[in-house]
Design brief:
- This protein has two helices and three strands, in the order αβββα.
- It has helices spanning about 1-10, 65-75; strands at about 15-20, 25-35, 45-55.
- Strands 1-2-3 form a three-stranded antiparallel β-sheet, with helices on both faces.
Length: about 80
């Protein structure tokens, strides 16, 4: 079921998915969506919404999560 969700998300790019790999192993991923909303009490017009961020425990504390967040911000 999850594999089907990921395949659909990847093919439709909704939500957007970035992965970090070590050779052929997926070490982590982030799913996110750009969003645009107007809030009456702020100047924020567009922002990114992180849906899920995961880093395999064997790759934690090595900068993979930070790298994924920075890459999502650039998008």
């Amino acid at each position: 079921k999850y594999r089907a969700y990921l395949k659909k998300a990847i093919s439709e790019q909704k939500p957007q998915i970035l992965i970090v790999k070590d050779k052929q192993y997926i070490a982590g991923f982030i799913t996110f969506e750009p969003s645009k909303e107007s809030y009456f009490d702020t100047q924020i017009k567009s922002f990114g919404l992180v849906i899920e961020l995961f880093v395999d425990q064997n790759y934690r504390k090595q900068g993979a999560g930070k790298m994924l967040l920075q890459a999502a911000e650039k998008r």
